[in-house]
Design goal:
Elements: E1 5-6, E2 11-16, E3 22-28, H1 38-48, E4 65-67, E5 71-73, E6 78-80, E7 85-90, H2 112-119, H3 135-149, E8 154-162, E9 165-166, H4 190-202, E10 209-216, H5 230-239, E11 244-249, H6 260-263, E12 267-269, E13 275-277, E14 285-286, E15 289-290, E16 295-301, E17 311-314, E18 320-323, H7 334-360
Antiparallel strand pairs: 1-2, 2-3, 3-7, 4-7, 5-6, 8-9, 8-10, 10-16, 11-16, 12-13, 14-15, 17-18
Helix pairs in contact: 1-3, 1-7, 3-7, 5-7
């Protein structure tokens, strides 16, 4: 299986399966002399790990990261050496027996059928490589990327829509995300959303959601025209997340309803001669290059496909059957996708930063 690596100068390869002994990643291209310890990775992994509330899968994983290479302590504290950074995360609570019934039947909405068709073999235990368990390694890589970007670049994401329940754009508050189990970008909706998601969970069903991303502190000039567009690479990275089915940058699909006058981000000069945009329909990116404004995006996630309601499917043997998926699953996969969205944005931006520096000096 190829295509387990993404990035150009900042390159990330993830490895491992949901029910294997461990998962992990190799980060290549990280500059030397950047302070880095496992404590820098753990807070981001703790945000993503399962079992944190009743609204996510009850699989119990500590997601403790171990750095195996690429860091050296010369007496002043561990720093990166410029060599590949290998990170290991043990799997501690895999329950493979829950997946015995799907060894031969394909789960509707999952990658079971296409993996079997493409490779002639699939790991039915939790989906193997197609499991969202793989995203823990992405979050670890994203933590390294954040260290490269520095504190000046702030990456935040949060759930802005749960099913049909939406947060108004002018009510989005990313500071609220840290203080509720739903990763909701508004404290005002949490109580109602909890009641709603409890109903979904108790029914053994699932629901989709939309996650919004905002990155501030990105200077003008990152990204490249034509085939290296920052928005294209960001969209590709976000679409690579499990269950992502749509990405929009800035105004996104809303731009199709706007006039040229409304969509154009007009410009003026501040007293010091600095350009100022009067709006941000472009999402901080024009012509594939960052403008210096906030980089904004939204990601639509489908409902978790593992539900208790019987669904029609077929088996490897060519028989028709019905299947209900047992096991421990998220009623809304988008909740734990919030730190993954942040991590993928961090990796794309760290790569863009390094490429800009290599080209422009």
């Amino acid at each position: 299986m190829s295509h387990n690596t993404f990035g150009h100068l900042f390159r990330v390869t993830t490895w491992g399966e949901s029910h294997g002994p461990a998962i992990g990643c190799v980060v290549d291209g990280c500059p030397p002399l950047i302070p880095l310890t496992e404590a820098d990775l753990q807070p981001w992994l703790d945000k993503r790990k399962p079992g944190g509330s009743r609204f996510v899968t009850q699989r119990q994983e500590s997601d403790t990261a171990q750095i195996l290479s690429g860091v050296f302590d010369d007496g002043d504290g561990p720093v990166t050496t410029g060599t590949p950074i290998s990170i290991l995360i043990q799997n501690e609570d895999a329950r493979s027996k829950d997946y015995g019934e799907i060894a031969r039947a394909y789960r509707p909405g999952h990658a079971d059928y296409v993996y079997q068709t493409k490779y002639g073999v699939r790991d039915h235990r939790g989906g193997g490589r197609s499991s969202a368990r793989e995203t823990a390694a992405r979050v670890a890589a994203g933590a390294v990327a954040r260290k490269i970007l520095g504190d000046g670049v702030r990456i935040r994401a949060g759930v802005v829509q749960l099913g049909r329940h939406r947060i108004a754009p002018d009510a989005v508050d990313f500071d609220a995300v840290e203080h509720n189990a739903l990763f909701a970008a508004s404290a005002e909706v949490v109580s109602a959303w909890e009641v709603y998601l409890d109903g979904v969970r108790k029914a053994g069903s699932s629901i989709g959601a939309v996650v919004a991303l905002e990155v501030t502190g990105v200077p003008a000039g990152w990204g490249a025209p034509i085939y290296g567009k920052l928005d294209a690479e960001l969209a590709a990275a976000l679409m690579s997340i499990n269950a992502a089915k749509g990405v929009e940058i800035g105004a996104g699909f809303e731009a199709a309803e706007l006039s040229g006058e409304d969509n154009a981000d007009q410009m003026r000069l501040l007293d010091d001669g600095t350009p100022q945009f009067l709006s941000n329909k472009a999402g901080g990116i024009l012509g594939g290059i960052s403008t210096g404004q906030a980089v904004t995006a939204r990601v639509a996630f489908k409902p978790t496909s593992s539900i208790l309601t019987p669904r029609k499917t077929i088996t490897r043997d060519g028989a028709e059957t019905e299947l209900r998926t047992k096991g421990r699953h998220d009623p809304c996969v988008a909740l734990r996708a919030v730190p993954v969205v942040e991590a993928m944005a961090a990796c794309v931006l760290a790569d863009a930063m390094l490429r800009h520096r290599a080209q422009q000096g």
